[in-house]
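Here is the promised in-class demo. Please do not try to memorize the tokens; focus on the logic of going from shape to residues.
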């Protein structure tokens, strides 16, 4: 039996498109067109005045008939802002919380992560969704936390794990290199084509889906439909992941992809 999971990661920019209009239906349609099993969303509003007090994660999940968990990165009275994971399958929250920060004019809002587990085709999978900060020092501390015992280094997160989100970092960054030593980049084979920001004319690769060595990438792409180019300032990324296969050492994977990854880094550094 070919057991696969279709995974999407999407920074939805509070459902504000490149035309500066807030339109939740467009975000929902972009997701629906790709039929993912699981969606990691970043930059969602819950109860915020600027979004009409709506619970964006709940409404998107309802329209897609999916389960969801929302994790606020910060709260201001009744208003919340953060990330969510939507799934066609029931989920269990394993860990959720804020990530460390630093003193910097770029570190102007808290950042967080959400770890859930779910089962598809009798295979248990861990999924971590995050949105890292704008300060390089802040991102470095945040990825160190994600690699630590509360997250990726937790024994319960040792197998069949997906980490995804908006890292605000290029493939040439320290953040990327630290994750690449531990996990596989599902879009590493797309040199020059993995750019996701800004959506109307992508120049930078900021959004990623990483998988543990016991998971295999079947296919991956950047969603570049006309609707995706206007619905948010980021393009969504998509990958089909095979859940069962003979484990291959990460070192072998890294060596076999080194040329492609260097090409990707060189391409990104042109911008």
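The designed amino acids, position by position:
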């Amino acid at each position: 039996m070919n057991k696969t999971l279709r995974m999407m990661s999407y920074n939805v920019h509070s459902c504000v498109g490149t035309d500066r209009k807030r339109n939740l239906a467009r975000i929902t349609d972009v997701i629906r067109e790709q039929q993912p099993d699981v969606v990691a969303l970043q930059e969602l509003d819950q109860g915020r005045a600027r979004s009409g007090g709506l619970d964006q994660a709940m409404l998107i999940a309802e329209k897609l008939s999916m389960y969801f968990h929302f994790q606020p990165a910060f709260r201001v009275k009744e208003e919340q802002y953060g990330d969510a994971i939507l799934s066609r399958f029931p989920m269990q929250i394993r860990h959720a919380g804020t990530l460390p920060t630093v003193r910097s004019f770029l570190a102007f809002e808290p950042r967080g992560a959400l770890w859930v587990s779910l089962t598809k085709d009798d295979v248990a999978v861990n999924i971590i969704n995050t949105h890292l900060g704008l300060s390089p020092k802040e991102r470095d501390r945040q990825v160190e936390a994600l690699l630590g015992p509360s997250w990726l280094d937790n024994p319960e997160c040792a197998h069949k794990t997906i980490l995804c989100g908006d890292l605000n970092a290029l493939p040439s960054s320290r953040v990327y290199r630290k994750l690449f030593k531990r996990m596989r980049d599902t879009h590493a084979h797309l040199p020059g084509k993995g750019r996701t920001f800004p959506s109307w004319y992508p120049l930078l690769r900021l959004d990623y889906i990483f998988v543990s060595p016991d998971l295999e990438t079947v296919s991956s792409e950047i969603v570049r439909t006309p609707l995706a180019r206007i619905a948010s300032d980021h393009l969504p990324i998509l990958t089909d992941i095979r859940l069962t296969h003979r484990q291959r050492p990460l070192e072998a994977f890294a060596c076999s992809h080194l040329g492609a990854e260097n090409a990707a880094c060189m391409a990104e550094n042109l911008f």
